[in-house]
Amino acid sequence: MVRSRAILERLAVATLVCTFVLIVVGAYVVTTGAGLSCPTWPGCFSDADKGLVGNWFPFLDPHANLHGYTAAMVASEWIHRFLAGVVTLLVAGIAWMAWRQRPVEKGLRVFGVLSLVFLATQIGLGGVTVLGGNSALTVVAHQANAMLVLSCVVAFNVLVFASPHRVRLTPEDPSAEPSGKEPGNMTSRPWTAKLQKRLGPWVELVKPGILFLLVLCGAAAMFLAGTPSAHLVAVTLLGGALAASSAAAFNNYFDRERDAQMKRTAKRSVPSGRIQPWWALVFAFALEIASFAVLWWQVNLLTAALALGGVAFYVWYTIWLKPTTAQNIVIGGAAGAAPALVGWAAVTGNLGVPALLLGFIIFAWTPPHFWALALVYKKDYETAAVPTYPVVHGEDSTRRQILVYSVLTVLATLAFVPLKVLGLAYGAIALVLGAWFVYLAAKLLVTKDNRTAYKLFGYSIVYLALLFGAMVVDRVVA
Asked: For residues 255 and 242, what is the distance between their CA atoms, to the nearest angstrom?
C-alpha cells in the first residue's frame, strides 16, 4: 500500500507536467500555423502511395513530401502527437491506479476517469481537426477540451496530495550495512567524491560521473556522423549536458524516499536535506528548459526534441519502471541512447544506423554495469523495496545475465568495423577492451564474490569512456 500510493503520487505529478507541456506545444502549433504540416492522422505526412495513416516517424524518410511546410513545423506537429501518446499512457495509468487504491476517496476515481474520457475526446478532436482542414470550430473545440483535460488532472493532483489516506513514507534505518563480505570503501562513484565534496550538493544532484559518460557518448556520435565544427560540438554537448543533468536532478527528486532508505544513497543531496525537494525539482525543470532552448536555437528542433524525449523517458523509468519490474534497468537503459541520437541528429538533421547502434551499445551495457553494483548492495535494494534483478531472481541468475549482456555489448561495439563506420585501429582497441569486460563478467560467474562484482562495475565505466574515446580518435585521425 505504501509503495503503490507513492507511485500514484509521483505518476500524478508526471501526468500534470506532461499535460501542461502538451498544451503549450499545441498552442505553438496553432500560432505558427503548423497544424496541417502533417495532413494525415494519426501518423504524419505521407506521399500518395503510403496510404492515409501517414509516416509514424517522418524524420527517417529522406524522400518525404513536406507539402510546402518547413521541417521545423512538421517536427513541432509530430512532437505534439508524440506527447499526446505519452499523456494518454500517463492518464490511463493514474485512472487505473486510482481505481485500484484501497482506501481512496470517491473524487479521486471520478477525476481519474474523467481525465481519461476527456483525453479520448481530445484525441478524436485532434484527428477531426487535421482531417477537416483546421476549421475554426474544431480548433476551438480542441483547445476547450484540452482545458477540461488539464482541469481534471489538476483536480486529481490536488486530491492526491490533500488526501487523508495519503501515506508519508518514513525512511528505515539508513545505517544498515550493504550485503557482501568485502564491499570495501563503497560509493556509487568514488572517483567523483572529491569533486562533489568541493563543489557542493548541486554538483551531486547532476551525477557528474554518469554525466561525463553521456557527454562523451554524444561527442562520439557527432564524429561518427561527420566532421562537425567546433561551435556545433560545443553547443550540442552543452545542450546534451544540460539535458542529462536535468534527468539526474529529476531522478534525485522522484527517488528521494527510496534513496533515504539505502545506505549507498542516503547522503545524496535531497534525502540528506542539503537541498530541499522543491528546489531540486525547480532546478531540474530549469536545466531542461535551458537544454531545449540551446539545442533548438543553436542546432535544430529534432536534436532538441530528442534530448527532451530522453529526459521524459528517464523520468518515466524512475516513476513507473524502477519500482514495479525486475527488468527496470533493461528497459530504462534505452534512455542512455538519447545522447547518441542527439549527437547524430545535430550533425545530420536526421537519424541513422550508426547512431542507433551506438544507442544499442549503451542499452546493452547498462544491465551489467548496474547489476554488478546491485549484487553488492542487494540488501539495500531489498530494504527500499526496489525490485532489482538480484532481489527478484537471485544472485546466480543475475551473474549469468551479466555475462550475456556483456558479450552482447562487445559484439555490438565490434559491428562498427564490418559496417565500415570505423577502422581496424578502433576494432583492435574495442576487442582488447571488450575481452577484459567479458573476462570480468565470466570471473564473477565463477568466483561469486562482491569484490569481483565491484571491479566489474568500476571497469564498466572505464571501458565505455575508453571505447568512446577510441571512436573519436579513429574518426579524427582517419
From this structure: 20
Residues 155 and 333: their CA atoms lie apart, in Å, by 33
Name, in order, each residue with C-beta under 8 angstroms of 242's C-beta and a sequence gap of 6 or more.
287, 288, 290, 291, 294
The model carries a pTM of 0.59
33: left (phi over 0), alpha (psi -120 to 50) or beta: left
Across 121-136, b (16+ Cβ under 10 Å) vs e yields ebbebbeebbeeeeee
CA distance 90 to 16: 9
- Average pLDDT on 172-181 reads 36
Residue 269 C-alpha cell reads as 543531496
pLDDT digits (tens, 9 = 90+) for 366-392: 999 989 988 988 888 888 788 888 888
As annotated, the residues of the chain forming the CATH 1.10.600 domain(s) are 194-477
3-state secondary structure of 55: strand
Predicted confidence (pLDDT) per residue in 242-270, tens digit: 999 998 898 888 888 888 888 777 877 88
Q: Which CATH number fits domain 194-477: 1.10.1760, 1.10.600, 1.10.10, 1.25.40?
A: 1.10.600
Structure confidence by residue, pLDDT tens digits, 409-422: 999 999 999 888 88
